[in-house]
Amino acid sequence: MPPRCGRAMALAIGCSVLGIHAADAETLAQALASAYADNPTLNAQRASLRATDEGVPQALSGYRPTVAAAASAGATDSRGTTFYPRGVSLTVTQPLFAGFRTLNGTKIAEAAVLAGREALRNTEQTTLLAATQAFMDLVEAQATLNLQKQNVAFLSQQVKTAQDKLNVGTATRTDLAMTSASLAAGQASVDSAVAALNTAIAVYEQVIGHRPRALGAAKPIERLLSKSLNAALDDAMNYHPAVLAASYNVDVADFNVKVEEGALLPTVSLQGSVSDNEGSGSAGGNTASAVVSLNVPIFSGGALSSKVRQAKETLDQERIQLDVARDQVREQAISEWGVLDAARAQIVAADSEVNAQNLVLSGVIEQQQVGQATTLDVLTAQQTLLSARVALVTAQHNRVVASYTLLADIGRLDAETLGLSVTMYDPVEHYTQVRDKWGGLRTPDGR
Predict the structure, then answer these.
(1) Among 78, 100, 191, 291, which residue carries the largest CB count within 10 Å?
(2) Could you give phi then psi for residue 373, rounded to 5 degrees?
């Protein structure tokens, strides 16, 4: 029988995808680190959060004064006399009270930032999970291709044996035809496995960010998972970014109701101005003023009341969305817990079947040599063993993916928890840099 390239997920170790030596094998952790640093979807979400951060200084600007300068110059003819009026002015307006809209608007912006951070965490989880899936799919595709090639090598030997026996009269043309047909089918399976491998390579490059090299070991991460299903559900409710983002969106909608209600309250502002006007033909010169303005809304045609009602309905919608997010996360955690349990059981069953079918094939070959088994018996035993080996590879693939998926379902699939060797992106850093900025057009990174 042809030798195998390892067992279990070790099928990936030393089995080069692109012909690179196994010493340069890329581990799953390294692939995840590359995806964390280079995945464009994740980087785009980081940029989106940085844009959301700017909502806070925009909201805080409602507490600050605004300064405006104006200048004018022209010509006026009056009864044959031409005047050349010109002037400059400077106006400073300081809001004093805005119906608590600035306060609540700032709370909206801050809650939106927190929701944005959870959306970024969710994208990070999605990216790392997609990278895990891409890595394991490539491992599975390579291992399956190896098994199909081993099958072709075995069938080629059977065709040669059948031909030799036919030449000496101890086999029939039927035996040769059966082995040749099995070899043709096996070669077709190799071609299909090559196509699947090429597809897996393309997905890997798209998600991870570079062409795959030889792939190293990949193991489940069950040590990072909750100890029981109930604990997993509790963790999911407390840590999953989709649930936390939905809860922050409720806060955004709640504060927005207060902002719209604040539009019904009076506003007070202080405005100071200085001006210099000349050449108008009348008294000019320097003037200065300071005025406190009170604006009391009385009737707005129903628009303000409608906005308050609309905001309350949006708040109800966000509360329902929070319940939906909790239900979805709960369902995902329960489902994936079952998938992981099933994968463990499938590995045990498939491993036992591989061991048994190895013995069966060896026994059938020995029986064929003494005339107690037919060529068809050998081919059937070989195909059963091949199916068992492929099933084992698939089960091991499913166990690794399920463990990472369950870690995502409880909200813990991130670079820090996985201990990836990569520079961590800190969303708080940019927020701190821009929160209290009063001006400047350049972003903190110099753009």
Answers:
(1) 100
(2) -140, 155
Question: pLDDT tens across 157-169, in order?
Answer: 888 887 887 787 7
Residue 272 maps to a domain:
no
Q: Is residue 378 a part of any domain in this protein? A: yes
Give 3-state DSSP helix, strand, coil % of the chain, rounded to 5: 65, 10, 20
The enclosing domain of 328 has a CATH number of 1.20.1600.10
Identity (one letter) of the amino acid at 144?
A: T
pLDDT at 228: 94
In total, how many domains does the chain have?
1
Residue 275 domain-assigned (yes or no): no
In the block, tokens 């959060």 appear at: 49
Phi and psi angles of residue 270, each rounded to the nearest 5 degrees, phi first: -115, 130
Domain assignment of residue 12, given as a range: 8-65+100-264+302-415+424-434
**Angle at which helices 241-262 and 303-369 cross, to 10°:** 170
Helix (H, G, I), strand (E, B) or coil at 198: helix
- Do the Cβ atoms of 244 and 63 come closer than 8 Å? no
Average pLDDT over residues 62-83: 86
CA distance 115 to 103: 19
Q: Percentage of residues in the chain with pLDDT exceeding 90? A: 71
And the tokens for 405?
């998926």
Structural domain contains residue 445: no
The contacts of residue 274 (CB under 8 Å, 6+ apart) are: 89, 90, 286, 287, 288
Task: Please list the residues that pair with 87 across neighbouring strands.
Answer: 72, 277
